[in-house]
Amino acid sequence: MEQPALVERSNARIADRKGTPVPSERRRDVAGKRSRSGPGSGSRLPKGQGGKGDARKQAATIDQGLSRFDIFPRLRFPFTKWEFLSLSTSVAYRETFWTEQRDLKTGLNLPESISRHYWDLSVQVNGPTFSRIFNHPGSLYAEKLKHTIEPYFNVERVSPIDEFDHYVQLDGTDTVVGRVTRVSYGVTNNFFRKPGGPGARSSQMVSVSLGQSYYTDQRAAQYDLSYQTAYGSAPSHFSPLALQVLATPTNSMTAQFRAEYDTQFHALRTMTANGTVAFGDWLHATAGWSQRRFIEGLPGFDDPTRLDHYLNANTNWKLWDHRIVGMYNFNYDILRSRFLQQRFSTGYNAQCCGFALEYQQYNLTGISSSPVPEDHRFNFTITLAGIGTFANIFGAFGGTGGTGTTGASY
Q1: How do 180-194 and 374-384 pair as beta strands?
Q2: Which among 171, 205, 229, 404 is least buried, having the fewest CB atoms inside 10 angstroms?
Q3: 214 neighbors 226 (Cβ within 8 angstroms)
Q4: Does the model's pTM come out above 0.90?
Q5: Closest CA to 150 of 109, 195, 189
Q6: Do residues 343 and 327 touch, judged by C-beta distance below 8 A?
Q7: Nearest to residue 331, comparing CAs of 343, 341, 320?
Q8: Which of 4-18, 86-100, 259-273 has the lowest mean pLDDT?
């Protein structure tokens, strides 16, 4: 019997932009927000510029707000539902409209609308899947273990897209490269466990995937959101080799690891790891680690000033029927051997009253334009039932500026 086509919901979004181009780390935050330049809020041209021939440049400088409308319907056609192999195809049509476009000479916005449309055809193949079950009678942790190996192979073709450089690039919606074929391939290993005892259910214990993509147009490697190091990298026919590991050894513990390896320079680009652990409902802790490595000769990774190496953690606890609560978190810059931020808070809550203490220390010198790049702050709060809350006169983590200790004295 012929399988019915599945219709995905169209995606229509409005995105806005104000000001000069934003860094890549903030582009996802810009999409979906609306802002408009008020009187006098735009940039002014230096004295001696902005004559008759600079009318378009002046307009682009003063008004940098824009709106974007995007619709992206997709049809999927599954062909097989075999347990060991799945094959499906999809076709999508995308129409995007911007109220402004980018001036190639100045990099600013021009008050001239522009639109784009293209077709996206893809084929996804998963499998064949190989599996094996290992029995461990009497084991309460894993009476049965199942290991599966599942290769995948995807082909995607995007029709030609004209005037790519004229689109105002806010996020991945605006950076689709046309006239390109992308071939993605890889393999996924899954491990499942079924605990012993009645009523036990199987769950995924470990998943390990390894994959890469090939592009007929080298520019597409710079905008593939499937890879963390794509933006800002050099054009290439191949993406980095991505390794991703997800582990859930128990219901109260999870861990993730991801690494991207450059196959041309034979070096690791980035590595990230994070995990969570919970002890009942009284203690919950998370930790994360990331590193961006130096690779000589690879654009985007050969600049020592762009390297980073961070460690962060957060712990929450609740004791004595949740009457005593607390929290501690920090962000540590391993590369520069300093704490970027530390925060500690604890409190006691009862039916009649409550008391809380908070302390924060941060040092953002050299990485922030804040007027107070380094500070120590202390805050206390007293709550009386039926009366209200009392705190230090500066408010939570408040102060009058400057470097040093603000808030209540201690």
Answers
A1: unpaired
A2: 404
A3: no
A4: no
A5: 189
A6: yes
A7: 341
A8: 4-18
Tokens of 257: 């690891």
With CA atoms as reference, report the closest residue to 399 among 369, 370, 379. Answer: 379
3 state DSSP class of 305: helix
Nearest to 370 by CA among 328, 345, 341: 341
Q: CA-to-CA distance for 335 and 330, rounded, in angstroms?
A: 15
Which of 16-30, 222-236, 324-338 is predicted with the least confidence, judged by mean pLDDT? 16-30
The pLDDT value given to residue 272: 97
Calpha distance 308→305 (Å, rounded): 8
- Which residues touch 98 (CB under 8 Å, ≥6 apart)? 66, 67, 68, 113, 114, 115, 167, 168
The secondary element (H helix, E strand) that includes residue 137 is: none
Local structure of residue 18 (DSSP, 8 states)? -
Q: How far apart are CA 145 and CA 149, in angstroms?
A: 14
Burial 95-104 (b: 16+ CB within 10 A, else e): ebebbbbbbe
Closest residue by Cα to residue 357 from 378, 336, 384: 378
CA distance 68 to 57: 21
Question: CB of 277 within 8 A of CB of 256?
Answer: no
User: How confident is the prediction for the chain on average, in pLDDT?
Assistant: 81
Angle among Cα 180, 13, 104 to the nearest 5 degrees reads 55
Tell me the sheet residues that pair with 146. Answer: 133, 192
- Residue 144: how many CB atoms within 10 A of its CB? 17
pLDDT at 256 over 60: yes
The H helix count followed by the E strand count for the chain is 2, 23
pLDDT higher than threshold 50 for residue 230: yes
Pair of tokens at residue 221: 């490697």
pLDDT digits 0-9 by tens, 274-326: 999 999 889 999 999 999 999 999 988 998 888 999 999 999 999 988 889 99
pLDDT, tens digit, 9 for 90 and up, residues 337-367:
999 999 999 999 888 888 899 999 989 887 7
pLDDT of residue 63: 53
> What 8-state DSSP symbol labels residue 60?
H
Whether the Cβ atoms of residue 22 and residue 35 lie closer than 8 Å to each other: no
Q: Which residue has tokens 């100045």?
A: 106
At 29, list the tokens.
């935050």
- Cβ atoms 260, 224 nearer than 8 A: no
Per-residue pLDDT tens over the stretch 39-66: 344 444 444 444 444 444 444 445 567 8
